[in-house]
Amino acid sequence: FCSKIMVPRDIESVPAGAHTVLWSDLDTNGHANNCAYTQWVLDALPLEYVKGKMLRDVQVNYHREAHYGEQVNLFISRDADKWYITGKTGERTCFVESLEFIIQMSN
Q1: Band of the pLDDT at 23, cuts 50, 70, 90?
Q2: Closest CA to 69 of 32, 29, 15
């Protein structure tokens, strides 16, 4: 179950790049597949942070379709080990995603 993701108002949201919706991102309806959002988000997070960690929880709230050729701008906010990423086309929100990480134990 995924409840509505609320980015805390007291944390800063910063631009984290953009992704142009590609053919391989589309579902059978011609919209960006919700699973593609997580790929875009993971690519936008700092490698020095995610390297050596594993995901504990991922949640996605879908707001509107992203279509082939559209540019989705990504904005990141962080609260301890929880990250919030918002994907927008222009001023319209396409999705909000939250990710929580844990330190991966080595063998």
Answers
A1: very high
A2: 32
45 within 8 A of 58, measured Cβ to Cβ = no
Count CB neighbours of 89 within 10 A: 18
Strand partners, 20: 71
Residue 102 carries which side chain, given as an amino acid letter? I
Strand pairing of 53-62 and 82-89?
unpaired
Instruction: Express the helix, strand and coil content of the chain in percent, nearest 5 each.
Output: 15, 45, 35
Whether residue 106 is predicted with pLDDT greater than 80 in this model: the reply is no
